[in-house]
Amino acid sequence: MVKHLLILFIFFAGLPAAFSQQVKLLTVNELHERLEQGRDTTYVVNFWATWCAPCIKELPYFEKLQEEKRKEKFKVLLVSVDFKSQLEKRVIPFVGKHGLKNEVFLLDEKDQQEYIDRIHKDWSGAIPATLFVKGKNQKFIEKEFTYSQLLSEYNKFIK
């Protein structure tokens, strides 16, 4: 009995560490560097938060898009705009609960208005918001997507 309890304790104690590997802190400069390094890759960067119901509703669509495009030079990046103080309490458990497989980041910036402007000039700060990037080409959209809308916007962007 004690042996089984010890095994369970070790298993559950390791879960937060496993999920924390899935959520990395990311500055706007690091995001820009990442996008510039992969010039031959199409990126779909979704800005979301754990408290945003429309964001949560559309997250599975980004997971599905990544899965369908896995053989292409394509990458979905999920960037949470939750407060940094919420990383351990909300973001990491959220990622685990929802089984997110795409790369998940927490935006590590202090001045919200300043980072909004640096991400894209057309962003008001509303979420959900999605940035499509391929090389120097960008398209920014502030809205909640259905899967068919997301796929349609992606297909229009890559043409």
TrEMBL record:
Keyword terms, alphabetized: Signal
Transmembrane stretches, by residue range? Answer: none
Any one GO molecular function term:
oxidoreductase activity
Show which residues constitute the signal peptide.
1-20
InterPro entries given in the database record: Redoxin, Thioredoxin-like_sf, Thioredoxin_domain, Thioredoxin_ResA/DsbE_sf
Q: Where is the Thioredoxin domain?
A: 4-146
**UniProt protein name:** TlpA family protein disulfide reductase
Origin species, per record, is: Antarcticibacterium arcticum
